[in-house]
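Quick one: structure tokens for this chain, please?
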Amino acid sequence: MHRTSQRPAPLNDTNLLTRLRDWRTARESELHTDGLDDEVVELPDPRAIDLVLRVGELLLASGEGTEAVGEAMLSLSVAFELPRAEVSVTFTAITLSTHPGGDQPPITGERVVRRRTLDYFRVTELHSLVQDAALGRIELEGAITRLRTIKRARPPYPNWLVVTGFGLIASSASLMVGGQFIVAAVAFIATVLGDRVSAWLAKRGIAEFYQMTAAAGIASVIGLVLLWTSSELDLGLHAGAVITGNIMALLPGRPLVSSLQDGISGSYVSSSARLLEVFFTLGAIISGVGAVAYTAVRLGVDMDLDNLPSAGTSVEAAVLIGAAGIAMAFAVSLAVPPRILPMIGGMGVLIWLIYAGTRSVLEAPPIMGTVAGAIAIGMVGHWLARQTHRPVLPFVIPAIAPLLPGSILYRGLLQITLGDVVTGLLSLSEAVAVGLALGAGVNLGGELVRAFQRGGLAGAGRRHRPAARRTRGGY
């Protein structure tokens, strides 16, 4: 089935809103009883069904949230005239059903995501494809060709730079919490080494839980060796910053935000699965760091709780540089398009300034400062996404990295190791609470922007959002 050619419409919010309103009107008519008549219609093009499924699969596998994947698939279904399309997206499976009408049976297709690789460059390109299709700027043949190009495209950064970026997360975090240049360099080496060992284990079929445990354990060993050396030679190095930096590099910021995002949008199955993924990752980090810390204490290594690395509420130049470095390094590891890296660096500084200001000026607890900074990032990230016609996750996920609770988690593990179990468990609970506050704050900021926007990718703005129409939103 082919549509007649038309002059390309300029890419602006007015045209997009008009098309999405037309889609919503047609969809509500189809869902009405009168829409299910006996009129015989032409069967949908199987290539269009395959395209919608493959785009949804690639979006989900590349790290996009469940709600956004569903919106994108519905937009493509409208663009390529799939009648009465229904979409179901879970953590690992995607289903599309379309009903031609008349005596024809429904046509249903499904794809399963077996391998996930975070690639926000690919997510950005796929969203551009969906938006062009929704505006009528590309036909089915062109969309199929473009999808093939996106799948075969080289990532924006070579592999060595992605690995380097992962190490720079740890070194920037070490610098941010007070580690000197030597400590930051050791944190870089320890994290890269742990990542390479994790990749080696992955090639041999070892489960991801043990890969993360090994990565955390190796970096912790290197950090504790530096701590022992510094203590013996009286070097005065904040060697604990090596472990703190490695923990921040491993913490699951993306699945944490996505889990809360899915839960708020009503995708409870996917939300539960992502949240379970978060806790398994935390368990792996705790296992690796905790085992090494316990062994070090048994061997007599002096681990003083009073001198643990922490940035506190400082706004010194080194801390701000570290915050920008963490955000940009996270962005590189997630294959975020290079042209938005400066914006992400600025957002990393912004979230830290708001956090530090809230805590120092208002004397608020860490969780309140975290929520304030995350809400601001959510609002700024959604605004930038609308202005640049890009998905929002490449903006907000790297930007929250400076507030990931690496130092709190490390403190809790040491407290438990040194015998103060109750206080240690409270610190671990605080780390979990800070992480949840980050995810909730980012989503709340996005909801505030959504409440005043005029439309969404697939009619998901304001009342047309499926999650808003289940109960009170339907009246």
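Residues 13-154 form one domain.
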